[in-house]
Structure formats: C-alpha cells, structure tokens
Amino acid sequence: MLEELERRNYAPRTIESYLHAVQHFSQHFNRPPDGLGLEHIREYQAALFKKYKFAPNTVNQRLAALRFFYVKTLKKAWNTADTPYPKRVFNLPMILSQEEVARLIDSALTPFHRLLLMALYATGMRRAELTRLKITDVDSKRMVIHIRGGKGRKDRDVMLSPVLLAALREYWRGLKCKPSEWLFPGTHVHAADYPISGKTVYHACQHATQRAGLQHKKVHPHTLRHCFATHLLEAGADLRTIQMLLGHRDLEETTIYLHLSQRHLSATASPLDALSFGKNRDK
Fold first, then answer.
1. Mean pLDDT, the chain cut into blocks of 10 residues (283 residues total)
2. Pair (124, 245) in one structural domain
3. Which residues contact 67 (CB under 8 A, 6 or more apart)?
4. Are 179 and 190 in contact (CB under 8 A)?
5. 154 assigned to some structural domain
6. pTM score, two decimals?
7. Is 126 in the active site?
C-alpha cells in the first residue's frame, strides 16, 4: 500500500493517515486487513461512530483510506452503495479579533514561539507549510515568501510582512549556529539538519492560548490561518486575492470567510429594522 501511495505522489501526511487508518481497521478485528471483507468494513464504519465517537468527516477519511487499500492495493471491487459515505458536517471556524490575535502572540512562551505565531498570522500558512520553509524561500527583495509543495502539491507566494521580516532577522542574528537549509531547524538550539515538527508549532499555540486566557475559544495553529483570511477580507481584500494567498483550489472554499467577516455581516441590515411598530402597543 505504501508503494501504491508513493507511486501516485500522495502527500506525506496523507500517506501517514491512510496507513494508520488501515492499521486501526486491522487492529479493531485483530486480523490482517487483506483477510477482511465488506461486512467487516460495514461493521467497522458503525463502530467508528458508536464506539470511537469519530466525527463524520473523520469517518469519511477512514473510508477513503480503506477504499484505496482495497481498490488500488488488493485490486478488489468497492461498492459505494454498500459502504455509503456519511454526510459531511460543515462547521464555521472560530475567529479571533485582531486584539485577541495580538494578545495571543504577546503571550507566547518564548521569543521563538512568538515568531512562529507571527509567521502563521502574517502569511496564512498551514502548520506543515511553516515547518518546511527553507532559508531561500524568504525573498526580502520582492517581499514575498515562497511556499513550496503546499496542499495538493501546489507552490504559491505570500506577502512578506516588514514586521515579520524584522522578527526573522532578529531570530537569525540570535542563532549561534547558522542553519544552511531549513529556516526553522529542529532541536532547542536550532542546529539540526531537519526542520521542526508540527508538534512544536502546536505546543507554541497551546501555551500562548493558556497564557492569553483564550482557552475557552479552543485556539489551534489553523485558527490563525482563518484569522488571516477573515481580517484581510474585513480590510477590503477581494476573495480572489485571498484564494491565491491561501492556495485554495476552488473559490468556493474561500467564500466561507464571507460568513465570518464582521464588515460583510454588518453591511446587511436585518429585515426587522425595516418594520414600523406602533408606539401604543398592547402590553
């Protein structure tokens, strides 16, 4: 299965999640996965909801992995009528105000954590894209950051904020051992020949959330990507520009931020405001 995924150039995170899904399926029945059939898949799908309490979108991902395993690896038939995909759940992401974003960044545990949070908000990058940045990706002459191999294997450019550039230069001056490839190398002294992990970014966000008193809002690294897009829209940026900056394949993905923008929500009056009520109403 790993070979089939790699031959099709699937993203590393997709490969990892697909392999984990089939492993979990096998462990659920304590049998090799190639010895399990349609009835096992149907039973497992029900268990994902009832026993493991997975969300519908997560169940869809597990089914996609099993379908790949059976169709591409085992060369078996797959009938979607017998294993229907559950309806996807559409949830609006939680958005912080600009004041809350500033408080979050200021509450970072370390200067390095602060830099990571600044970079997420300044560019709208995904967590994995941030960790894989290379030194050569920062173009201070054109004031852009190159994001290579983003979701869907797509490259794109995002703006390089002067404030972020100044913070990056301060970080660079403070490094005792200058990295040769990765912008954010691993280990606490930033001297490894591999980049930081996504867990580093996650923990940076979680520590800052606690210190800023925002834990009731369940902030995570992707929240800053949503804030980046929503605040740009509120500042007057058009949806097409935001789509390009986020690397969305379809403009429809970007229109979600119309539901989140205060400027667009407040620009539309409620029909209640157009009604005329009598002054002497019966109480």
1. 93 91 97 93 94 92 95 90 81 91 97 97 96 96 92 87 97 92 91 93 97 94 96 92 92 86 76 78 56
2. yes
3. 78, 83
4. yes
5. yes
6. 0.80
7. yes
